[in-house]
Amino acid sequence: MHKCCRKLVCAPLIRSGNLVEGNPGATSGDETVPYNSLSLCKSWLGSKVNMTRAPQAEHDGSDVQVELNVDHLPEDDIIPNMTRSSRVKYITYYEDSESIPGKRTAVWELDKANHRNIVRSPVLMRELWLQMWHDIRPDTTSKFVTKAKRGPLRDDDCYWDYGKARCAWAEYCEYRYIFGDVHLGQSCRLKNSSAETLLNYL
Tell me, what is an example of a GO biological process annotation in this record (predicted)? Predict the structure, then answer.
């Protein structure tokens, strides 16, 4: 998509730090909050930033992109040099690799999120919960929770894959019928307890 003035001088429209061609829909910001306002948050990051882009949905890590120790000037926006599929909604994480003394900053951008209802976003709640759980663990070895993959964390996250005639996410979920289940998806449950599953995110 291009924004053109009467003199036919065209400038690419930038959304979420990426050149957007065609009409994929808003990638960051919506009708309530412009991107320029949201990007101000990234000016709070330190001098070195780790950037990770991953699908919002559960994923196996095959579509995760990472840029480490990217230089960041104080009070400036920062733009990832990453690709995106028009069919996937991503979350882009910006995290201090060298924290300002006494502070630790992370900024998350969620594609196509309505900012009026952001607190209802299951993806945001999952990420916030994982980070809080990570922070209270005495045995954690990193400042931020890993982004390498996102699998089911609760029985409710498991579901039946009709194409494969089994529970999806076979690494995490199994078919285990309990009296009262009324459809196949309800009988898909975590193989291990949630507590054991969470150990993958230290």
Answer: lipid metabolic process
The pLDDT tens digits of the residues spanning 54-92 come to 999 999 899 999 999 999 887 788 888 999 898 999 999
Torsion angles phi and psi, residue 28, rounded to 5 = -155, 140
What are the DSSP calls for 19-61, one per residue?
E--S----SS--SSS-HHHHHGGGGGS-SEEEEEEEESS-B-S
Of 109, 138, 132, 103, which Cα lies nearest the Cα of 121? 109
Tokens found for residue 48: 């070195």
> What is the DSSP code (8-state) at residue 129?
H
Alpha carbon separation from 179 to 72, 175, 186 (Å, rounded): 56, 13, 10
> In whole angstroms, what is the distance from residue 113 CA to residue 121 CA?
8
* Domain residue ranges of the chain, discontinuous segments joined by +: 2-150, 151-202
Distance, in Å, from the CA atom of 202 to the CA atom of 140, rounded to the nearest integer, reads 5
Task: Give the CA dihedral 126, 127, 133, 134, nearest 10 degrees.
Answer: 150
* 102-135 pLDDT, tens digit each: 778 899 998 888 777 788 888 999 999 999 999 8
Q: What is the 3-state composition of the chain as percent helix, strand, coil, each rounded to the nearest 5?
A: 25, 25, 55
pLDDT digits (tens, 9 = 90+) for 2-49: 222 322 222 222 333 333 333 444 444 455 555 666 678 888 888 899
Q: How far apart are CA 69 and CA 81, in angstroms?
A: 13
